Amino acid sequence: MWGEEKMKKDQRNIVYLILGQMISVFGGAILRFALSLFVLDQTGRADIFATVLAVSSIPVLFAPIGGAIADRFDRRMLMVLMDISNAILAILLFFVLGMNQSVFLIGILLFILSIVGSFDTPVVTASIPLLVDESELEKVNGMVNGVLSMSNVVAPIIGGILYSLLGAQVLVISSTLFFILAAIIESFIHIPFEKRALEKGVLKTLTSDLIEGFKEVRRNQVILKSILIAALVNFILASFFIVGTPVILRVVLQANDSMYGLGMSIVSLSTILGAVFASYFTKKLRLNNLYLTFTLSGLLLFAMNIGLTFAGTSAGNRVGFTLFVITGAPIGMLMSIISIYLISMVQRVTPKENLGKIMATIVACAQCAVPLGQVMIGMIFKQTSTNIFLPLSVVASVVLLISVLCYYLFKKTTEADIYRIKE
């Protein structure tokens, strides 16, 4: 009886967590979308728009600080406070939209908003292992990531319609309501919390905790290697989908607006499906056979490359598009499956008192790898017109090299080794 009651309580906590995060992320996506369009409409300059976006991406480097805070304070309280802070910032942005120096002030407030957001991810990912059994980690991590990805996909679509009808200020106020609703829902989550004394004061204790977190990463080889592979996934595969996919669809296959939208939607949907069904696909996945996912991804990229050699004629473009979808969708799913598996594995082997710091480190490293990868993919695809064989061959070869690296990193790692590390 007690076991059933605990299960129901755990399920409620997960529902509240997912629902609260979904609403919060949706509100944040609506807010960023409205502000990006507002900046473009006000200035008409892509360089200013890009600068505002770049500045708002810098705070991911603050994630480890958020992780240290997550390990010291009540995580439910932190989630609620962060969404209240987001709501307050959204209200300030509402008033800023009508000012003369609005673009500059938007940049500052977006920077602060992004700092708050950089704290949110480690708090959530560090909370999940405390709410579910280890056997459920892939399932819950997949659900959380899938729902959040869906929010990020749907928000711009709805935001675009509402922006044209209602304008930026109404969307900003709407995001405020989303943040407040998310804070209310998150207040019902019950996350186990053991208060730990701040022996040296807040600042010195958090600094000491940060150093300890980095030491934990360095001495725990499973965590260190997992962070490296997670960063490489984003560096090459995520960057390829962000930069390479539009080039393939628009430049190589000369897709019209509807086909372009279909291709991009299928890629986005595949990553969401990969996250949602990660628990099923990772049942037989282990660190010592993880390299096979990269091997399969690399081979699929070569198959995609062969299909794209038909591009150039109307019939050839259709063949290329079909093979792009057939090969690209599994790669998108594999990318999510690898990420979910690595996150879940790190959650398993990390001591509870270090969960926030370690999860923040893996998130920061993975996210920082994306812009670096985008630059590399952009350089590889720089001269691409209709002939993409060589650039895509380079990308596929890099993925196969990561497969070899992954094999050598984890070939002697067993399940017993993993749990011995935690002990």
Description:
With 423 residues, the protein is mostly helical. It has two domains: 2-188, Growth Hormone, Chain: A (Up-down Bundle), CATH 1.20.1250.20; 214-422, Growth Hormone, Chain: A (Up-down Bundle), CATH 1.20.1250. The protein is 82% helix and 0% strand. It has helices at 2-43, 46-57, 63-70, 75-96, 102-131, 137-166, 168-186, 202-219, 221-252, 257-276, 278-281, 291-308, 314-349, 355-380, 389-410, 415-422. Helix 12 runs antiparallel to helix 15. It is globular. The two termini are 31 Å apart.
Proportion of beta-strand residues: under 5%
CATH architecture identity of the largest domain: Up-down Bundle
Percent range of helical residues: over 70%
* Coarse structural class: mainly alpha
Number of domains: 2
Number of strands: 0
Query: What's the rounded overall pLDDT mean?
Result: 83
Major sheet attributes: none
Quickly name the level 1 CATH class of the largest domain: Mainly Alpha
Secondary-structure element order, N to C = HHHHHHHHHHHHHHHH
- CATH homologous superfamily grouping of the largest domain: MFS general substrate transporter like domains
| Overall geometry | globular
Number of helices: 16
CATH T-level topology of the largest domain: Growth Hormone, Chain: A
Distance between the termini: 31 Å
Using only C-alpha atoms, the radius of gyration works out to 22 Å
Give the low-pLDDT segments: none
